[in-house]
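User: tokens in, sequence out, please.
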């Protein structure tokens, strides 16, 4: 990290302001060499300076700007940072960026500013991931979870467990080094039992909370499936409160997936309306049908739509069979018409609701069912201390397994150095969650998904 990086930190496009950000040992000098105004090498830290940016030769004016100078270590990356506030616009912003590169800066990689903040010890790995979560949050609940992680609540919980483990491991080392003292052994065993129970309980609660609240961040991947003309697209439009999908009486109108998002009880539903399932000779429609069926295994929720005004068709029966092991809601649509449908024996009656898309509140039952199935009214909580991605939750589960192994060893009166191995493993795994232990490959892979200017 001896070089200085630069990137555009605002969204590309036309806007009132664009920000070009630099970080590194030469950040102030590089900007100053292209700047006419105050000498940036002599201004106080955390000041905003008015002036003009020129190209490297200082002959061609590029923009009238405000330049923020922030000196290490009290910056986002713990390095010198300069932010050039330009007039918004692709051409002007790119010209300023090019001037910085010509003067010695290197174009930043995705997430490199945050990566430097992590490597310089400014933030831990949970906080690093929370920054991107905050940027990408699509609901207020997801935003609150990200902010909670960014404030360090989750990190502090992990650190507290590690501190207990460190003290416990120190006691074990004393026991190993001085085995002749019986009272030390007694104190150590009692302490191990007590601390293991406490840490086990904390980790278990953290994992359960994380799995329950992960839905607040990612949303519910929902697939609407059924044969043609049962009302799938009309239900999608009703959920989204807009005409996203084309609705006609012609079978096979929807030939590809149609996607949309809607908030229910503050939780995001990622909804996909699929092509109607039927036998067809139309090559395009056939591809759509195959794609529809392929999306069933990946869905968190499958909404199976049936026409209550018709008897079950072979396609209906096939759909019911393919979705029987999924979390599903069976919608008997068009309940404003005469009911003719008869469902097979064995269908869970709790999963069945009736709707229509002609009345204003015709799909209210569907919304209520989703809230009930996923406990959305209970998931929303003031306690947002949780892990928010697969990496974090997987590691937490591994740490929990190590604690269980240590507990089993204690119950089986295993030698204390065997117990120590399990506790040390738990300590190291928890360190991976917050980034105390990490590999370059994992770090590079994590930050490559960030915005370039973040």
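Assistant: Sequence out:
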């Amino acid at each position: 990290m001896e070089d200085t990086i630069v990137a555009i930190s605002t969204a590309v496009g036309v806007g009132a302001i664009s920000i070009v950000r630099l970080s590194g040992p030469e950040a102030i000098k590089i900007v100053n060499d292209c700047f006419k105004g105050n000498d940036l090498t002599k201004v106080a830290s955390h000041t905003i300076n008015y002036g003009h940016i020129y190209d490297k030769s200082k002959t061609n004016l590029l923009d009238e700007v405000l330049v923020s100078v922030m000196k290490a270590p009290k910056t986002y990356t713990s390095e010198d940072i300069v932010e050039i506030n330009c007039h918004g616009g692709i051409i002007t912003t790119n010209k300023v960026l090019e001037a910085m590169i010509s003067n010695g800066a290197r174009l930043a990689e995705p997430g490199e500013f945050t990566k430097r903040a992590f490597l310089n010890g400014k933030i831990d790995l949970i906080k690093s991931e929370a920054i991107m979560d905050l940027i990408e949050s699509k609901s207020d609940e997801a935003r609150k979870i990200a902010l909670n992680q960014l404030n360090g609540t989750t990190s502090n919980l992990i650190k507290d467990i590690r501190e207990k483990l460190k003290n416990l491991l120190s006691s074990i080392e004393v026991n190993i080094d001085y085995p002749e003292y019986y009272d030390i052994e007694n104190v150590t065993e009692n302490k191990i039992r007590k601390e293991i129970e406490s840490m086990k309980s904390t980790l278990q609660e953290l994992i359960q909370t994380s799995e329950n609240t992960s839905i607040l961040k990612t949303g519910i991947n929902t697939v609407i499936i059924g044969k043609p003309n049962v009302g799938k697209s009309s239900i999608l439009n009703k959920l989204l409160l807009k005409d996203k999908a084309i609705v006609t009486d012609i079978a096979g109108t929807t030939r590809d997936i149609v996607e949309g998002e809607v908030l229910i009880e503050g939780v995001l539903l990622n909804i996909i309306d699929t092509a109607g399932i039927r036998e067809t000779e139309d090559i395009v429609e056939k591809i759509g049908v195959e794609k529809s069926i392929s999306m069933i295994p990946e869905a968190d929720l499958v909404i199976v739509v049936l026409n209550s005004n018709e008897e079950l068709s072979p396609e209906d029966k096939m759909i019911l069979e393919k979705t029987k092991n999924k979390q599903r809601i069976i919608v008997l649509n068009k309940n404003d018409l005469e009911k003719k449908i008869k469902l097979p024996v064995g269908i869970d009656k709790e999963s069945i609701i009736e709707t229509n898309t002609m009345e204003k509140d015709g799909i209210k039952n569907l919304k209520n069912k989703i809230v009930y199935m996923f406990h959305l009214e209970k998931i929303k909580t003031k306690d947002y201390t949780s892990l928010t991605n697969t990496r974090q939750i997987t590691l937490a589960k591994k740490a929990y397994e190590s604690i269980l192994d240590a507990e089993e060893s204690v119950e089986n009166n295993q030698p204390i150095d065997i117990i120590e191995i399990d506790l040390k493993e738990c300590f190291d795994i928890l360190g991976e969650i917050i980034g105390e232990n990490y590999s370059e490959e994992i770090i590079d892979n994590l930050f490559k998904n960030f915005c370039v200017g973040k």
